[in-house]
Description:
The chain is α/β, with parallel strands linked by helices. It has helices spanning about 15-25, 55, 70-75, 135-140, 160-170, 190-200, 245-250, 295-310, 370-385, and strands spanning about 10, 35-40, 75-80, 85-90, 95, 100-105, 105-110, 115, 120-125, 130, 150-155, 175, 205-210, 215, 220-225, 230, 235, 240, 260, 270-275, 280, 320-325, 330-335, 340-345, 355-360, 360-370.
Amino acid sequence: MTVNLPQSVVIVGAGHAGGRAAINLRQLGFAGRITVLGDEMHPPYERPPLSKEVLTGIAPAQSTHLVASGEWDALDVKLALGDAVVEVDRGRGAVRLASSEVVPYDALILATGARARAFPGKVDAGAPVHTLRTLADAAALAPRLLRDARVAVLGAGFIGLEVASSAVQLGARVTVIEAAERPLMRLLPTGFAEWITSLHAGNGVDLRFDTRVTRLRANGIEMEHGAGVAADVIVVGIGAQPNDELASQAGLAVENGVLVDGECRTHDPHIFAIGDVARLRATHTQATSRIESWRKAEDDAQTVAAVLCGAQTRPRDVPWFWTDQFGRNIQLAGEPSDRYASVLRGNPGQGSFVIYYLEGNALRGVIGVDCGRDVRAAQKLIQNCADIDPAALPTPKVKAAKAESRPA
């Protein structure tokens, strides 16, 4: 069943995906009422800069906002901030806020995102524990990253490694503790994981892999077998938990995320889910999947806006991620994996390089360092399922590695 030209759209979640959905609806000509509901006091903003430019003070918090505050009025989008949605009443077609206000909808978009996963072990009173998911998190953590501060980062995923890079840039002494045997175990092939490990070790980060933390204390962390690491700041970056409780309480299907089809629909024809909270249902050719990324938020917002405006949805882009660490821009697209043959172009020790991952003559994934143009070109080859001659894969222009500015 198709939702045809609703007169009112309510978006629950004033983050990147929710804000972009509202903008795209207007760009596609939607003339009805749009209401964006969020529990934070900030207007919709992007999260990637939080662990980089915002944390290091290079950019102010306002630089993360999707649009300037006055532009929401120009778009005729109502922002209702600082008041959480506590109930979805599907029978009435309305949501109820913590303030008891009831907001009706013709179409509802759940863009509730995810929250930082809490440390599962014991946390002592006074332990200096931080996470990094929101602007408020960044504002709380930034003043603690002082010169010579001892910073323990739990988790060697994107957030943990970016925080480590930013903290070192600010002069802190950083230890990263990871339960897996290498960083980004589920995302990075072994060879590239070794390169990123060397990047951090070469910049003074103390990396501890295959290590489990059991307790967070006021003066540091305690690991298995009684070993410990002294710390003035503890940053927990062990993943994110989708905020799917609201959907579950409303009787929608959830599975570590709200289950949706390729057009972001739940099984209720009037309700959609997008961004980090949305999980694509399994098909006969593809397993269920939930991706947390800037690109996913953008794609879902475009898709749901097109569906609600009766416009044609465009094909989704190849999955793409990026991270900036120690002055290096790292981009991944497709499915770089140890399952595929790898072809290296460039020299990892002397600047830009790219690694292509092939299954026969089909390009399945790519990782590039300081060569965004080459990654974009590879994305098109992956998208088009082009037949590749491995010998013809290009080498990126030689670009010297940028030296990361570090305090003396």
